[in-house]
């Protein structure tokens, strides 16, 4: 039963990784760039929620609402001001630009919030620690269920938007060929800005759940970026449902690895990632656009 519990906890952990990877996958699928600041943007969102929650004494879930609005605008402006110019310089410049943005965010957070670790678990109330006990060795965390359900809802919602709405069709058309889409009246800059805004918002959501289930600091971003990137690669670049599967595989690998030795937890996830890369599927990764 201990192994069953490990797999179950891994599935819930995978939901968090899928949320982190969602924005990364969308941005790569639409714009063909890997946002190296994605993890730091998630941590920035977590700090904003923490600040609002502690300043006004409200639940992190309420603090999430104004934070999401701010981060949506921030994502839109980020694309219009920085990423648009970086995209004109070829595939390497956006990578360097987002790497620079990552350093700026980390140092800015260090200056404002110091290097102290923080958590939102205390402000969230019983949901952060509540669980349903099935047997002595098997329990279901309420927060884990909420995170997994949120990940499914977000990924399913995005899939629906891409498949059924005009905005989604514009994103898919731009992902396939931005120049041709422009010829039929689809402005790629606006499509990219909307995709970036959505990606930043989902990163903020993931940052809040990270802060609810563990501690975070100004230096937490790069680690979350690695997990998100691994989940995206394992699940398939540009595939939203694949991102959920990749996150769950990574989460289960980590929790099962921890059953052998707690020090093997992170290593087991990395090994699964490398194993996927070594397979024929990994060596021929599909670099196509976002798929609906």
Automatic annotation (TrEMBL):
Annotated localization: Cell membrane
Biological processes, Gene Ontology terms: amino acid transport
Signal peptide from the UniProt entry: none
GO annotation, cellular component aspect: plasma membrane
InterPro entries (UniProt xref): ABC_transp_permease, BCAA_transport_permease
Topology versus the membrane: Multi-pass membrane protein
Membrane-spanning ranges: 6-28, 33-52, 58-78, 90-110, 142-162, 191-212, 224-252
Main subcellular location: membrane
Name this polypeptide is given: Branched-chain amino acid transport system permease protein
Native species: Petropleomorpha daqingensis
């Amino acid at each position: 039963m201990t192994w069953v519990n490990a797999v179950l906890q891994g599935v819930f952990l995978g939901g968090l990784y899928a949320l982190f990877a969602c924005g990364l996958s969308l941005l790569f699928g639409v714009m063909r760039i890997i946002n190296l600041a994605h993890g730091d943007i998630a941590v920035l969102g977590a700090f904003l929620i923490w600040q609002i929650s502690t300043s006004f004494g409200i639940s992190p879930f309420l603090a999430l609402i104004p934070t999401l609005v701010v981060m949506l605008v921030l994502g839109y402006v980020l694309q219009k001001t920085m990423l648009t110019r970086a995209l004109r310089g070829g595939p390497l410049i956006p990578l360097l630009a987002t790497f620079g943005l990552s350093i700026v965010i980390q140092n800015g957070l260090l200056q404002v919030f110091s290097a102290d670790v923080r958590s939102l678990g205390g402000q969230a109330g019983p949901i952060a620690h509540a669980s349903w006990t099935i047997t002595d060795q098997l329990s279901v965390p309420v927060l884990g269920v909420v995170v997994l359900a949120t990940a499914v809802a977000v990924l399913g919602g995005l899939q629906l938007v891409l498949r059924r709405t005009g905005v989604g069709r514009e994103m898919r058309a731009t992902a396939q060929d931005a120049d041709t889409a422009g010829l039929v009246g689809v402005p790629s800059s606006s499509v990219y800005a909307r995709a970036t805004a959505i990606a930043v918002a989902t990163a903020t959501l993931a940052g809040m759940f990270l802060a609810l289930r563990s501690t975070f600091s100004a230096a937490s971003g790069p680690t979350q970026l690695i997990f998100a990137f691994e989940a995206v690669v394992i699940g398939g670049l540009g595939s939203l449902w694949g991102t959920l599967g990749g996150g769950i595989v990574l989460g289960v690998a980590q929790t099962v690895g921890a059953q052998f030795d707690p020090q093997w937890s992170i290593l087991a996830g990395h090994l699964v990632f490398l194993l996927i890369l070594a397979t024929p599927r990994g060596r021929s990764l599909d670099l196509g656009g976002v798929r609906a």
